[in-house]
Amino acid sequence: MPLYHRLASSTQRLDIAFHQTHSKEVWGTGAFLTGIACVKAYLGPLPAGDDGIEFETNIAPTPGTSTLTVAYWYQGQAQAAAKSGFVMIPVSMRKVAYTQPANLGAASCVF
After folding, report:
1. CA–CA separation, 105 vs 68, rounded Å?
2. Which domain of life does the UniProt lineage start with (predicted)?
3. Are strands 79-80 and 25-28 parallel, antiparallel or unpaired?
4. What is the reported pLDDT for 34?
5. What phi and psi values does residue 30 have, to the nearest 5 degrees?
6. Which tens digit of pLDDT belongs to each residue from 38-90?
7. Which is the most buried residue in 30, 73, 107, 109, by most CB within 10 A?
8. Among the listed residues 4, 30, 29, the one whose alpha carbon sits nearest the alpha carbon of residue 93
9. How many domains does the chain have?
């Protein structure tokens, strides 16, 4: 299975990474400017030194929507999530790395 990653951000925080690892799901909401719910991730492994998550999924990105660097899963490829306005894909988490002070609450985490 191909590897994907999401970089640490205000919507990809450490607490969310813990939830994703436990639930084995990555969720997404309305894409910028469209409002259409999708899961977005970058192709390939989490770059060395960057904070975020690295995962695999057996769900192919939505055909015709991805670029050379970004994958999107829209309703149809992604499943409707328990919370309205969200979609999700099942994942196998491969790496969680949060070490930069700006991305941490109380402690660093790499697993």
Report:
1. 33
2. Bacteria
3. unpaired
4. 74
5. -55, 125
6. 999 999 999 999 999 999 999 999 999 999 999 999 988 777 776 778 899 99
7. 73
8. 4
9. 1
